[in-house]
Design goal:
It comes from Astyanax mexicanus. The protein has 627 residues and is an alpha+beta fold. Helices cover 46% and strands 14% of the residues. The protein is globular, with a radius of gyration of 31 Å. The relative contact order is 0.07.
Length: 627
């Protein structure tokens, strides 16, 4: 072969290799970190660029792994082998196929080994928080909305689409389990077992991952807890929607399918009996659900054996969670005369025991100086109010001075100085801490006691105005100031505090608020007592559940207090503070005495002890101040 030709071929091969390397995907954890860094610098154009690229790469890596694993599984099947060598030959060839397939599309796999923390962020859709992108509306949520509007024909189509997408997502979720696995109780670096124990160990972990797809697919992006009864609810909605459009055979099939998940559920058993009477047929449940549950049961049996071998306890999760059905007034069709009556339901959604309160407002204000500026009607909502002159200018000034002396950066925000936005600094303190400072002579004790007294005054006003039958207890009390950081206020489009609800996780896309951890689900009412208004921005805003449509805006000023119920009916936030410092007493209340603020109880004891001391007189300066 001609030497020049050989050199050309070698150079061509080298060039092709270089082009392959340069075309490889950038690791999405690197892109994500770059986006977070850009956000902290205020370089929002770069944030969008890096986060969009990170999400695109994450999706491409995930889809590549799914396609390659399904392709290689089909090419090198391991079922039906009774010869050990043939079994492992297929396993080895599948592994080689998988490596070649993935690296051909995304480059060297070692570049895409991502830490568990970053993976968790992507699974919870945290990059979307930086981009402020809404989640794509699911067919199921859209179907529920149409169902609630009585558009049953359209709802049926969307629920069927949602089921198709669910089973497709289940296949993908299970395929992604065929990667590295590890139980926390096992230290594989020191693993000393033989071949078949190792195979059993890894396969058990793979089974566990696949088994948990039921939970993963029922968990909304960014949430920790799965939706109650998620997959069975599809069939519950469908059985009634099909009945509404006179497709009784389909309704019967869906009702029987629901009973596969909840055998003996009374309301659905009655539906089945009624549908059978109408059609004259016994009906059959849907085969995809029959096969799904059969596989689920077989996996559980193997999991119990495998985890016992490993010495790791396994408890089957309550995957279907609730016998509750749809959250509407049309659960059970009854009667056989051609006209249907509907028995309203009383179950579902929140299984916690709560006292149902009649929503009222307009009770006595208790203090002559206090007056209502805006009630719920004026604020375009429910259970919300604005008071003025709750405290005087002198009291505002004294509390603000107390804040400047006692607040600590990041207090109340797990030590984060800028918990909601990098453009503002947050400092806070509690009633107990200020009383301790007062007793030690670091601040006037009367100022610390004023904080204690003012918070109690606010509690009484809220409790009386909303005419509550139960006592309001303090859940958390915080004297907090947020300060605009100089040099970081140009072209701000963020909020000082993003739109949220106080006792549930706001899901703007679904127009839902999920009462589950990490939300403070026990909080019932909230209040904000402002100490000043000499700053720019910082308006308190109420919105619709879409977190976009503003229904009311309140400008803080000394002595003004906003009070409202803490649930999804009152999403709220704070506009950016672009100059100066905004100080307020933030209060959250609960009607459940089990969730009383422990620091408040301790503060009560401190005040009682001080009252009992010989040197305590109203208005007297702390003797330690004179030292």
């Amino acid at each position: 072969m001609d030497l020049n030709l050989l050199l050309v071929l070698q150079l061509g091969g080298l060039l092709a290799h270089i082009l392959h390397l340069t075309s490889a995907l950038e690791p999405y954890d690197l892109l994500y970190d770059n986006g977070v860094d850009a956000f902290s610098r205020g370089d929002y154009d770069s944030v969008v660029r890096f986060m969009e690229k990170a999400l695109q790469t994450f999706s491409q890596v995930r889809n590549t792994k799914v396609r390659c694993r399904l392709k290689c599984e089909d090419q090198h099947r391991v079922d039906g082998f009774f010869n050990t060598d043939l079994f492992f030959s297929s396993v080895l060839r599948r592994a080689a196929c998988l490596n070649h397939c993935i690296e051909a599309q995304i480059g060297t796999q070692s570049m895409h080994k991502i830490s568990d923390d970053v993976l968790q962020d992507f699974h919870r859709r945290i990059p979307y928080n930086y981009l402020q992108l809404a989640y794509r509306k699911r067919a199921f949520s859209a179907g529920v909305k149409l169902y609630d509007e009585g558009q049953y024909e359209e709802a049926v189509a969307l629920f069927e689409e949602a089921l198709t997408e669910y089973y497709k997502a289940d296949v993908e979720c299970r395929a992604l389990c065929e990667g590295p696995q590890r139980f926390e109780e096992q230290d594989h670096v020191l693993y000393r077992y033989g071949l078949f124990e190792l195979v059993s160990d890894h396969y058990t972990q793979l089974l566990h991952c696949k088994h948990e797809c039921v939970r993963d697919l029922a968990t909304r992006p960014g949430r920790l807890s799965p939706m109650e009864n998620y997959l069975p609810l599809h069939y519950d909605y469908l059985q009634f929607a099909y009945f509404q459009v006179n497709k009784v055979e389909e309704a019967l099939s869906c009702a029987l399918t629901y009973l596969l998940f909840h055998e003996g559920a009374e309301f659905m058993t009655e539906n089945v009996e009624h549908f059978r009477e109408m059609t004259g047929q016994d009906g059959q449940p849907r085969q995809e659900a029959v096969q799904y549950l059969l596989r689920h049961k077989q996996e559980l049996e193997l999991l119990l054996i495998g985890t016992e071998n490993m010495g790791v306890p396994y408890t089957e999760g309550n995957y279907w969670n609730s016998f509750g059905g749809r959250d509407d007034a049309n659960r059970i069709p009854s009667g056989t005369d051609g006209w249907m009556e509907y028995v309203p339901i009383s179950e579902k959604k929140n299984t916690s025991v709560t006292v149902v309160q009649e929503l009222r407002e307009g009770g006595p204000l208790l203090y002559d100086s206090v007056h209502v500026v805006h009630n719920s009607m004026a604020l375009n909502g429910t259970q919300r109010v604005v008071f003025d002159d709750v405290i005087s200018d002198r009291e505002c000034s004294e509390l603000k001075h107390l804040a400047h002396t006692t607040t600590i950066a990041g207090d109340g925000y797990r030590g984060k100085m800028s918990p909601h936005t990098p453009n503002e600094k947050f400092e806070g303190t509690t009633v107990l801490k200020t009383l301790q400072f007062g007793y030690e002579g670091r601040v006037p004790l009367k100022s610390a006691r004023l904080f204690y007294q003012i918070s109690e005054k606010a509690r009484k006003i809220v409790e009386s105005y909303f005419m509550l039958n139960s006592t309001l207890h303090f859940s958390y009390t915080h004297l907090v100031c947020r300060t605009a950081i100089t040099g970081q206020q140009d072209h701000r489009n963020d909020l000082s505090h993003p739109i949220h609800a106080d006792n549930c996780l706001l899901d703007p896309e679904a127009n839902e608020c999920w009462k589950e951890p990490p939300a403070y689900t026990y909080r019932d009412y909230s209040a904000l007592l402002y100490l000043n208004g000499d700053f720019e921005g910082g308006e308190f805003i109420f919105t619709e559940m879409d977190a976009k449509t503003i229904t009311a805006s309140i400008k803080p000023r000394c002595g003004r207090m906003v009070g409202f119920s803490s649930g999804g009916e009152n999403p709220h936030g704070v506009r950016a503070v672009t100059r100066g410092q905004r100080c307020a007493v933030a209060l959250w209340f609960t009607m459940d005495p089990l969730y009383r603020e422990m620091e408040r109880l301790q503060a009560d004891e401190v005040v009682q002890a001080l009252d009992n001391q010989h040197h305590w007189n109203q208005g007297q300066i702390n003797p330690k101040d004179e030292l």
